[in-house]
Amino acid sequence: MREFGYRRVLDVSGAVALLDADPDARFLGGGTNLVDLMKTGVERPARLVDIRELPLDRIESAPDGGLRIGATVTNSDLAAHPEVRRRYPALAQAVLAGASGQLRNMATVGGNLLQRTRCGYFADVTKPCNKRVPGSGCPAIGGDHRNHAILGASDHCVATHPSDMGVALTAFDAVVSYETAAGPGELPLTDLYLPVGDTPHRETALPPGALITGVTLPPAPVAAHSRYRKVRERASYAFAIGSVAAALDVRDGVVRDARLAFGAVASRPWRATRAEALLAGAPADAATFAAAADAELAAARPLPDNAYKGTLMRNLVVAVLTELAKEAGR
Amino acid sequence: MTAPTALRGAVGTAHARVEGRDKVTGAARYAAEIPFAELAHGWLVLSTAARGRIRSVEAGPVLDMPGVLTVLHHGTAPRVDSEYIGMLGVPPDPSVALFQNDRVPHAGWPVALVVAETSEQAREAAEALVVHYEEEPHDIGFDAGRTDAYPVDGHMPAVTEKGDLAARLAESAVVVDAEYTTPEEHHNPMEPHAATARWDGGRLDVVDSNQGSTWVADELCKLFSLDPASVRVRSEHVGGGFGSKGVRAHQVAAVMASTLLQRPVRVVLTRRQMFSLAGYRSPTIQRVRLGADPDGRLRALEHESLSLTSTVYEFVEPSAGVARAMYDADAHRTANQVVRLDVPTPTWMRAPGEAPGSFALESALDELAEKCRIDPIALRVRNEPGTGPVSGLPFSSRNLVACFEEGARRFGWADRDPRPGMRRDGRWLLGTGTAAASFPAGAGPSTAALTAEADGSFTVRIAASDIGTGARTALTLIAADALETAPERVRVRIGDSDFGPAMIAGGSMGTRSWAWAITVAAGELRERLAAGNGIPPEGVTVRSDTTAAIGALAQKERHSFGAQFAEVAVDAGTGEVRVRRMLGIFAAGRIVNPLTARGQLVGGMTWGISMALHEEAVRDRVSGGHVGADLAGYHVASHADVPHIEADWIDDPDPDDPVGIKGIGEIGIVGAAAAIANAVRHATGVRHRSLPIRPDRVLAAGTGAQDA
């Protein structure tokens, strides 16, 4: 592995100044993904800027009922926070559904959003990959793609975004704050990830050298009644093959408000806006839930070995929304 | 039945591992952790081409990189001799004859070794090394339609047959004819392969992680044409082997480099390299045909298995062999075939043959029970053979029915509603299943040295390997009883080829083979001590060799047996399958140390969960190499997948073994995957004939009458 320099920074302006001048540098958060990628040669930074000491490790309640989550808050702290668990239970569940206790103690919120796909071709530098080496091709399309994208992919890349946390944050309209040498900025999480198109190597809309400083969750009363369900090929310590973050507000048997996002089906956490539109105002029953899932999945373009994900997501949406509706009726 | 020796209480009672404290405190050093002065580090470079020739190795630029000492490849490496028969009676896999020519027979073939002052420098240079290939089209297509498959014997005949199969099948009232598949599976021991080689006073000294130090010493000695007395291999602590830790590229590379550089060289495999260099279990395609009377009595049994091997070495995964010991029929045919592909050579992996073979055969028995509408245990009892179905030899002991009876009682089998899809717990469909298990019981020649020390303690020296099984502790208990002393007064030293020839830790034969040698030496030592001449300062040492005694064993069907039970929960909407509980009851000879024996059996059953639901290496047709060759991509059961597992045993001492041992290393995994698959069938009504039973397969199959 390539030798690299290491600097620890204590303030945000110092951090972004270091990266602004140095395209070969990377921010190091928990290192739970970056260090793996450095070992396998996918990432070869010349310098690491360790941001774990930055004063971004707080979770603050906003006066309007939302939350502001610092970028270096660990997954463990986020999942354990009483206000997260009370106001956005699906977020806490999503975090706890990911990785292992040791990894969650290290991994950070900012790093989680910027983690790379776990596509086996991307992770192996001896194989072609348009995301790693633009123009080299996508062997997953004709090869192993059982856990690849069915929504929003392209002929150039079918990789999925692996985050669980991001799925819940997407459902709850999270906004990402960042800092660059030129000043601060904000992006809704749904706009953070770029469409795949023919540029799968360009993953986010963040300006070069930007440091994610935090995530803001706007107030969302519906989120207090929410759930994250993750399906994977073993009971723990595996990435999702399909997941759902859902929130449901039901009154008198009618859906008043619904939030729905999918994981492991696209290059980004997938906000199911078509399904949400269909749910709003409709009867809270299995037929509605199935129709909502179908509406969202109508755009699915599966490959031969991942077509099961359509069935999986439909069943999962119906199961989770039915559970939430049942609980609302109690 | 009782074992023929008098027993004194250590054997049969639970003892914590004698080296346990050293292991949990980190005091126990593993192969890659032992420090050496002037140590250099080698890093292997593996082929990215799946077939062809090496056109050039561009070593020049790499030699200029920081710390790089040398680059070994086919143009620079010393010649070795791979035309020999090794200690186990087979020629070596030519894969260990490193860097001898420019041929590349598969992706992941070692093409160079870069040696540098530090491991990081070696790795960086190895990854920078440019190798040009002349690529040829490769063929890794493994399917039932291969016309180039052919029968291979391995350590048993490829084909056995008796009776008129077609006629007996035609007149059978009930017929099962089904194909089962198992995927490529990898050992993945916790500790990666690692070796340090150095020349010390004219002797080659190798510190390694292996399953037999005399075995590896013998192979290295022959490969490098050395005097046997000038090679020493040590391997005291080993973090798992499962069949993968014999002579491999890392030891050979380390010896080559240390010879050239005249300084110690260490080579450690990465997890990803292990997928290409450590061997693996071949995928199998198996067809089982059963013909039976309406009451389930077998008239015809055929088990055919196809596995793959490399183009350089013939290895067979003998999955069809399991029926030769398990079930009889008027017409009986078993056949193991292989096809040669551009892939690495597979090797033994825990319960070779029996693990995949029992999945197919015990699934087929379950299918037959359902068709005959009889209980799956009753079906097996009805088909208990009196003698070896193929050999006609008597069984040394066969307590399979007793295992089923005890297991059924404890599992609550009698309360089972045989109809599928009847039990539910929320979103989960519940089902139970059972399967039989067997594994050959054998012993290999070993030597041991026992010393009565002047202070009243004893030292045992034997080239045994404790690969995490608890063998060293078991041998301590056996020696203590044989010497009529307390275990605390016995030191057992293992893992050193200087202790003389000994059986490897493999084939469930290690502990039994070593125990035999220790028992014989202990008997003679006690006689010597009883003669009463006192103990001189250097102690009194007795050596034993069991070659003649083991050679004199009568021909019998010698096996361990077991009954596996599993309860599973299946969410048909998501395809998730979870094992809720397992019970295994085994008849596996005398149990030396119940504590570590339970660990062995539960470990095997846990691997059965992995085999049934998770494990599968994926090969990419285009590149010919693996995708996801690491523990994130290759799933083994996580702790959350492992429910309440109970393993226990019935009294079953082997009448022909001095201690009564049969061996417990592999039997725990045998039948476990079939019990789980049979339980999935019971839960959902769907028969899954391909492992692993993944969510996508469960979803595709749905529920009801279809088969997957």
UniProtKB/TrEMBL annotation, chain A:
SMART domains associated with the record: CO_deh_flav_C (SM01092)
InterPro entries hit by this protein: CO_DH_flav_C, CO_DH_flav_C_dom_sf, Diverse_Substr_Oxidored, FAD-bd_PCMH, FAD-bd_PCMH-like_sf, FAD-bd_PCMH_sub1, FAD-bd_PCMH_sub2, Mopterin_DH_FAD-bd
Residue intervals passing through the bilayer: none
SUPFAM superfamilies named in the record: CO dehydrogenase flavoprotein C-terminal domain-like, FAD-binding/transporter-associated domain-like
GO molecular function: FAD binding; oxidoreductase activity
Gene3D superfamilies: 3.30.465.10, CO dehydrogenase flavoprotein, C-terminal domain, Uridine Diphospho-n-acetylenolpyruvylglucosamine Reductase, domain 2
Residue span, FAD-binding PCMH-type domain: 1-222
Key word Oxidoreductase present: yes
Assigned keywords, A-Z: Oxidoreductase
Name of the protein described by the UniProt record: Oxidoreductase
UniProtKB/TrEMBL annotation, chain B:
Stored SMART domains: Ald_Xan_dh_C
A GO MF label: oxidoreductase activity
Domain Aldehyde oxidase/xanthine dehydrogenase a/b hammerhead, residue spans: 25-137
Pfam families registered for this protein in UniProt: Ald_Xan_dh_C, MoCoBD_1, MoCoBD_2
Keywords, comma-separated and alphabetical: Molybdenum, Oxidoreductase
InterPro entries: Ald_Oxase/Xan_DH_a/b, Ald_Oxase/Xan_DH_a/b_sf, Ald_Oxase/xanthine_DH-like, AldOxase/xan_DH_MoCoBD1, AldOxase/xan_DH_MoCoBD2, AldOxase/xan_DH_Mopterin-bd_sf
Top-level taxonomic group: Bacteria
Record carries keyword Oxidoreductase: yes
PANTHER family, per database record: ALDEHYDE OXIDASE 1-RELATED, XANTHINE DEHYDROGENASE
Protein name, per record: Oxidoreductase
Originating species: Streptomyces fructofermentans
